[in-house]
Design a protein that fits this description.
2 copies of one chain form a homodimer.
Chain A lengths: L2 H8 L3 H9 L6 E2 L5 E2 L2 H15 L4 H12 L5 H35 L9 H6 L12
Antiparallel strand pairs in A: 1-2
The first copy, chain A, binds a DNA duplex through helix 2.
DNA sequence: TCTTGACCTTCCAGTGACTGGAGACCCTAA
DNA sequence: TTAGGGTCTCCAGTCACTGGAAGGTCAAGA
């Protein structure tokens, strides 16, 4: 199948597929006209990449996962380890974003938000101390 | 003050400060030796940038915030609006990561994680259907 | 005075993971 | 024959830095 078909079936943009070929994640054959020819196995790889990328694995992690995927002697423990690591990463990111949100919320709650130029958010951003007189959480 | 001092006081890497000058976020004077000379106002800008970047505002948002920061006639409502938008963005990201985590956790829970090559995580990544026979949440 | 080492300069290239566009070739149907 | 898509390569841009090379400057110590 051509790249367009592969793109629709894998839900990866054409450009992305070409890029994946460039970095060696997939190696379709070429027809006489120079067009890429994707086999069913190529399509499987693309689908695998689509799914693992959308689950937050980096390209290099995907490369590792792919080689495990194609290693029929792999231990499932190896895959599980990578996945557990990823979960911890995701947890870390969530925590970061939550504390970020807390700060932003505090700023917004302290701001009267009208036409006056004085603004506690600005004070916060500029590093000035703000008295925590208002609501406490 | 020189760039090194500005770097320590703003907690921004030297390289980053030079980059910020390149894109016009800060315009330090130059001494006879060609060294950048940061005024107290420049330092304030840098600190402002450090804080707002670390709160997840993009460079362009920082540029907007900076001009509001220096506009003594600004309305605090404008600042509040930008910040509220940012909170929504953060919320969206948190939700995404949470659903990501849910999927990853399901995968891990289904995986026996031993020396055997069969691995439900791999099945999942490759798009194969997995029977939801195990624990339900 | 000389040297050492820290600090500063510019410029260029690389990161990750694509994305956009130009210009050209190929294929199919009307 | 023509029109329209699809495909090709190559180059450049994105975002926000980061690293490194090659060289100029400065202050302290021998």
């Amino acid at each position: 199948m051509n790249i367009g078909t592969a793109s629709r079936q894998s839900r990866l943009p054409v450009k992305t597929i070409r890029y994946y070929e460039e970095i060696g994640l997939v190696r379709p054959l070429r027809g006489d006209n120079g067009y890429r020819e994707f086999s069913q196995a190529d399509l499987e790889r693309l689908k695998f990449l689509q799914r693992s990328r959308s689950l937050g694995f980096s390209i290099e992690e995907c490369r590792d996962l792919l080689s495990l995927y194609e290693d029929t002697n792999r231990a499932s423990a190896d895959v599980k380890a990578i996945t557990c690591q990823k979960i911890q990463e995701v947890d870390r990111k969530i925590a970061e974003l939550k504390s970020l949100k807390r700060v932003l919320l505090e700023m917004v709650e302290a701001c009267h938000g009208d036409d006056r130029p004085d603004c506690p958010i600005m004070d916060d951003l500029s590093g000035r101390e703000r008295t925590h007189g208002g609501k406490q959480h």
